[in-house]
Write a structure and sequence with these properties.
Layout lengths: L1 H19 L4 H4 L14 H20 L6 H23 L12 H13 L35
Length: 151
Amino acid sequence: MFGTFVFMEGFAWFTHKYIMHSFMWRWHQSHHVHHKHWWEKNDLFGILFGLASTALIVIGFELPAYGFVRWIGFGIALYGVAYFVFHDVIVHRRVKIKYTPKSKYMKRIMKAHYIHHKVHERDGAEAFGFLYAPRKYEDKTIRKPTAGNLG
C-alpha cells in the first residue's frame, strides 16, 4: 500500500504532464481558468482514479488469487485522499479553511503549484508534481493566489 502511494506521485506527475497537458487538455483546461462554480471538468480525472481504486479493492477481496491488488487499490485511495486535502482544500481552497503553511515542505509545494498555475495554456507550464516539488521552489514567502493566476 505504501509503495503504491509513493509510486502514485510519479504516476500523477507523468499523467499531469503528458496526458492532462496534452491530449486530455480539454478536461484539464477547466482547472487552469478562473471560475466560480464548484465543479470542473478536470474533476473527472479524480472520478476515474477513484473507480480504478475501487475496482482493485473489490477484485482483491472477491478473487483470493488476486488479493494483493486490494493493497494497490488502497494505496491509490490513500494518495487520492492526500491529493484532495493538499490540492483541493489547502491550495485551491475549494473547501474553505484557514491555513497558513509553516513548514518549508508545505511552502515549497504550494509555491510550485502556484507557479504551475501562472500558465493558462496547455504548453509552457512547469512543476507538475502534487506532493513533491524540487528544492528550486523553496522561498520564504508565498504569493497568495489571485483570480488571474489560479483556477
